[in-house]
Amino acid sequence: MSRIGKQPIDLPQGVQVAVSGNKITCKGPKGSLDLELVEGISAKVEAGKVLVARAEDTRVLRAMHGTTRARINNMVEGVSKGYVRNLEIVGVGYKAVLQGKSLNLNVGFANTLVVAIPDGITIQVPDPTHVNVSGVDKALVGRVAADIRAQRKPEPYKGKGVRYVGEAVRKKAGKSAAGAGAGAKK
Q1: For residue 149, which of 134, 167, 135, 136 has the smallest C-alpha distance?
Q2: What CATH topology corresponds to 83-164?
Q3: Measured in whole angstroms, how far is the alpha carbon of residue 116 from the centre of its chain?
Q4: Domain 9-80 belongs to what architecture?
Q5: 108 in helix, strand or coil?
Q6: Tens of pLDDT, residues 54-91
Q7: Do the Cβ atoms of 49 and 107 come closer than 8 Å?
């Protein structure tokens, strides 16, 4: 039996989970989310807890048992607390500007990069070098933050680019001093 899949999910105050057929709906103070269950995986709500079970012991259903339980837990946590990913922009003249439903990034290219903000995501720019991505869907928040980071990943020599707050960027040593190499002038 899956160690994660067999654990019940506690429902916090104000969160309601409804199961109808192979669809599970989670509603809370931050919003609502839906999930289609894989055939052979079932969920039921009893006594303020959500229980996930599988119909048979096949390899695919064993894998999906724990995955489905984790996704339902992420839904419950998302509609009750929400998720946030914080990004920072490092580099001289690098900045972010929020403009309507898009985020404009000036990160060292000749053109301003425009990132569209999908529905269900809130982006805040407290200052030009910090971007906060928040929403109820953990996967969507992570994907949007990764898309913003992918516009200009941190480079290994000076560390310039877009990175997660607290991300450690391993820096490489640059070229060695003049005169130390084989092609140095005498």
Answers
A1: 167
A2: Outer Surface Protein A; domain 3 (3.90.930)
A3: 16
A4: Alpha-Beta Complex (3.90)
A5: coil
A6: 999 999 999 999 999 999 999 999 999 999 999 999 99
A7: no
Condensed to tens digits (0 to 9), the pLDDT of residues 118-151 reads: 999 999 999 999 999 999 999 999 999 999 999 9
User: Which candidate, 16, 72, 65, 5, places its Cα nearest to that of 39?
Assistant: 65
Considering just the CA atoms, what is the radius of gyration of the chain in Å? 23
Mean pLDDT, the chain, as a whole number? 91
Within 8 A by CB and 6+ apart from 20, the residues are none
154's tokens: 């941190």
Q: What is the pTM of this model?
A: 0.86
Q: Which residues contact residue 103 at a Cβ distance below 8 angstroms, ignoring those fewer than 6 apart?
A: 96, 97, 114, 115, 117, 123, 125, 131, 148
Domain ranges of the chain: 9-80, 83-164
